[in-house]
Specification:
Strand order of the largest sheet: 1-2-3-5-4
Distance between the termini: 7 Å
Radius of gyration: 16 Å
Structural class: alpha+beta
Largest sheet: 5 strands, mixed
Order of helices and strands: EEEEHEHEE
Number of strands: 7
Oligomer: single chain
Shape: globular
Helix content: 10-25%
């Protein structure tokens, strides 16, 4: 099992933020909102608009390749997974016609980044005081030569 470390309040300008580490994987999440919807065409009258932006720092892995400007499929998919997870958790009906933005960045990648990002986002939401049904936790596991491993 990897050692886990978490810290809230890591970004002073954010409404809520957290750093979450699982072994050598380190991510930071910042939440802004709820606030007025910036783009009126996206406003929903009965619930909160949740947006998520996921990225990996260029220095997060040993691979120093340039990342595409518009993002890649993996980043888009992980952004969607984080957004859908948090939408299912938060009480969006209590904050109609508002917007919450989640920014998650992988600072150091060593496996389990998706789980670490979800855990960091949950802590950032709690730090921001956003009403949730419950806290979300995420983990992943695998096998190595018939031995179960927590990632």
């Amino acid at each position: 099992m990897r050692q886990i470390r978490a810290e809230i309040g890591a970004v002073s300008k954010a409404d809520g933020s957290a750093i979450f580490e699982m072994g050598n994987t380190k991510v930071i999440a910042a939440v802004y909102g709820p606030r007025e919807v910036q783009n009126r065409s996206q406003q929903m009258s009965d619930q909160t608009l949740v947006r998520c932006e996921y990225s990996m720092a260029n220095f997060s892995t040993g691979d120093r390749m340039r990342k595409p400007k518009g993002g890649d499929r993996r980043s888009t998919e992980i952004s969607l997974v984080i957004r859908q997870t948090m939408e299912a958790c938060i009480l969006t009906h209590l904050m109609p016609r508002s917007q919450i933005d989640i920014y998650v960045q992988v600072l150091q990648a060593d496996g389990g980044t998706r789980s670490a990002c979800i855990n960091a986002a949950t802590l950032a939401f709690a730090d921001a005081g956003i009403p949730m049904r419950d806290l979300v936790t995420s983990c992943s596991a695998g096998y190595l030569h018939s031995t179960p491993l927590g990632i």
